[in-house]
UniProtKB/TrEMBL annotation:
<keyword id="KW-0574">Periplasm</keyword>
<keyword id="KW-0969">Cilium</keyword>
<comment type="similarity">
    <text>Belongs to the FlgI family.</text>
</comment>
<comment type="subunit">
    <text>The basal body constitutes a major portion of the flagellar organelle and consists of four rings (L,P,S, and M) mounted on a central rod.</text>
</comment>
<dbReference type="Pfam" id="PF02119">
    <property type="entry name" value="FlgI"/>
</dbReference>
<keyword id="KW-0732">Signal</keyword>
<comment type="function">
    <text>Assembles around the rod to form the L-ring and probably protects the motor/basal body from shearing forces during rotation.</text>
</comment>
<protein>
    <recommendedName>
        <fullName>Flagellar P-ring protein</fullName>
    </recommendedName>
</protein>
<keyword id="KW-0975">Bacterial flagellum</keyword>
<dbReference type="InterPro" id="IPR001782">
    <property type="entry name" value="Flag_FlgI"/>
</dbReference>
<keyword id="KW-0282">Flagellum</keyword>
<keyword id="KW-0966">Cell projection</keyword>
Length: 377
């Protein structure tokens, strides 16, 4: 085989170097966050739907009609509409359950589109596994019907039990129907009818709103030769669409712009689970911290005093209590962090449990050394 000329080899090496250099230069740009991930367009939102229906086909795990009278009344009304008269009969089926059906109607959804629905039990049914939802009307907040749901449910949880033991995994009284609702009515309004294009930040912040404005204006100067964004406050940024671009394309191009959002210094503490989340900008002024645990144990070991034979005495219980107290040694550590890594390293040096870290953070905040907002859930 003939080797390629030196000129072609040099050209190929140059192309490879250019490609690698382009990837390296493009890496920092992809490290940012897209605007559409941290902000949403005002007026473009979902609408919640809710409905009441019946699930049939259960294997004896439905509602007890004697306890859930609304299930019996619903079943009688449904059979009456189908021409079956059961008003004077006492129904005893266990294959039917009353449920609540919820769904989110996407913005600008058209008639004939399908959406997912969630089904949850309303009575004393033990499981909805294997059930089928009958046609259920889904209404919005205005009372109008926007969709109708029907179909077999997918239930991930199960419950199996006997007389002495019951095994339950997941939630067997809740299920989901993918594409289970058919949209019958559209929400009034269209995207082109929006009076103004306004981006609303999901986490309001003045600096983040300014960064979004600067990025959009830089894009507008390069694309249209003028600025197209004005910050209104820490929550919203107003957009002015140029006339030579469609509204949909304009929002799509603006949403793909990337920035590095700013986050406030915040520490979130969940005392129920022992979870501590520390933000990137959290700082602690230099303080000395020591922490020790005091454990008090009270043990009751009552003794029985038995009298001698023929002594005419009585058997009595003599209380015996033993109290012990132990206190662990507390290490004195200096905490002070200019960044998150230094702060975490200082907390790890003390060697504490999550509950102890929560107590220390609360004490440091009281001392005025925690330069962040402490949120306790």
């Amino acid at each position: 085989m003939r080797r390629p000329p030196a000129v072609l080899r040099a050209l190929s090496v140059t192309l490879v170097l250019a490609l690698v250099l382009g990837l390296v230069l493009a890496a920092p740009a992809s490290a940012g966050t897209r605007i559409k991930d941290i902000a949403a367009l005002q007026g473009v939102r979902d609408n919640q739907l809710v409905g009441y229906g019946l699930v049939t086909g259960l294997q004896g795990t439905g509602d007890t009609l004697r306890n859930a009278q609304f299930t019996e009344q619903s079943l009688q009304s449904m059979l009456d509409r189908m021409g079956v008269n059961v008003r004077d009969a006492r129904l005893r089926t266990r294959n039917v359950a009353a449920v609540m059906v919820t769904a989110d109607l996407p913005p600008y959804a058209t008639v004939g589109s399908r959406i997912d629905v969630t089904v949850t039990s309303l009575g004393d049914a033990t499981s909805l596994k294997g059930g089928t939802l009958l046609m259920t009307a889904l209404s919005g907040g205005d009372g109008a019907v926007y969709a109708a749901a029907q179909g077999p449910m997918a239930v991930s949880g199960f419950a199996v039990g006997g007389q002495a033991e019951t095994l339950t995994q997941g939630v067997p009284t809740a299920g989901r129907i993918p594409n289970g609702a058919l949209i019958e009515r559209e929400v009034p309004g269209a995207f082109r009818d929006l009076p103004q294009l306004v981006l609303e930040l999901k986490n309001p912040d003045f600096k983040t709103a300014t960064l979004i404005t600067d990025a959009i204006n830089a894009y507008g100067l390069a694309r249209f030769g003028r600025r197209v964004a004005v910050p209104r406050d820490q929550r919203s940024v107003v957009l002015h669409r140029p006339r030579d671009i469609a509204q949909t394309r304009f929002i799509a191009e603006v949403g793909d712009l990337t920035i590095m959002p700013d986050t406030p210094a915040r520490v979130v503490v969940d005392q129920r689970t022992g979870t501590v989340v520390i933000g990137r900008n959290v700082q602690i002024s230099t303080v000395a911290v020591t922490h020790g645990n005091l454990t008090v144990r009270v043990t009751e070991t009552p003794e029985v005093s038995q009298p001698e034979p023929y002594s005419r005495g009585q058997t009595v219980v003599v209380p015996r209590t033993e109290v012990t107290a132990t206190e662990q040694k507390g290490q004195l550590a200096i905490l002070g962090g200019s960044d998150l890594q230094t702060l975490v390293k200082g907390l790890n040096q003390v060697g504490l449990k999550p509950s102890d870290i929560i107590s220390i953070l609360q004490a440091v905040k009281t001392a005025g050394a925690l330069q962040a907002e402490l949120v306790v859930q």
